[in-house]
Structure formats: C-alpha cells, structure tokens
Amino acid sequence: MREVKKSLFINEQGLTLVEVLASIVILSIVLISFLMVFIQTIKTNQKSEEIIDATYLAQREMERMYDLSRELEVSKRPEWFIEENYDHRPSMDNWEVFSRSEEGTAYKIEVSWTDKGDQMTRIIIKVYDSNESTEPKAQMENLLKWRTDDEVSP
C-alpha cells in the first residue's frame, strides 16, 4: 500500500504548458464576452440619458409656449418669437418656423396658425444636438388655445 501511495506522488508532475494556455484562452473568451456586454450597456445608458435630457428640454420649451399662450395676445405671437432671439424662416404650407440655439442645443419650433378665430395654434417642438444635426433627439406636439386681444390676463 505504501508503494502505491509513493507512485501516485511521484507521477504527479503539475500542469503542462498546453493546459495553462488552454485555460488562459477560455478565461479570455469569457472575460471578453462579459466586457462586450458591459460596453453595450454603457452605450445604451448614454443614449437613453441623451434622449431623456432632450425630452426634458422639449417639455420645458412646450411649457414655455403654454405659459405664453395664457399671457400673450394672439396678435403679438410672431413678434414674441423674434424678441426672444428666435431665427425666423419664411412660412411653408401655413407653418412658421422659428429656431434658436442655446448651450450646444438647437431648438426648432414649427407653428401653424389655424383658422378658428386665429386662437388655436398647433406647435411642434424639435430638439437637436446642434444646428448641424438633421435628426431630432426629441419632439413634442401640442394644440394650444391662445387668449384673444380683448381677454384679460388670468
């Protein structure tokens, strides 16, 4: 029995170079796959954060338009945009287009004056990364009723 135990200890030579390389390759494949998942998660989180930020900016601008519809008379709408440093492009198909840039973000506001006593206004707000961007990061649309020139502010 003693001889059997000695022979077992004597024949044990440790890991071969091939076994070590195979284990390193397997570990590398597993780690690289986990790393790719983490990188994709980080990219998705960054994209989601950009969209949330742009949506917040569009919502803020839409709330500004809503407040404006409660305070400003119908006849003063176009002048207000110009006073607030919006660039005005000529109207296209009953749409007025106003745009402005602020801290690396570009806003484009499309306004359609409707025929119901000129009080209803359809507004589309688009938020871009910059003036050069063609695809908006966020977009909101609303129909607002503007107060008339003879109404008193609430």
Automatic annotation (TrEMBL):
UniProt keywords, alphabetically: Competence, Membrane, Transmembrane, Transmembrane helix
Q: Which residues form a coiled coil?
A: none
What is this protein identified as? Prepilin-type N-terminal cleavage/methylation domain-containing protein
Q: Where does it sit, as one GO cellular component term?
A: cell surface
Subcellular localization is given as:
Cell surface
The source organism is Pseudogracilibacillus auburnensis
Q: Name one GO biological process term.
A: establishment of competence for transformation
Q: Which InterPro entries match?
A: N_methyl_site (IPR012902)
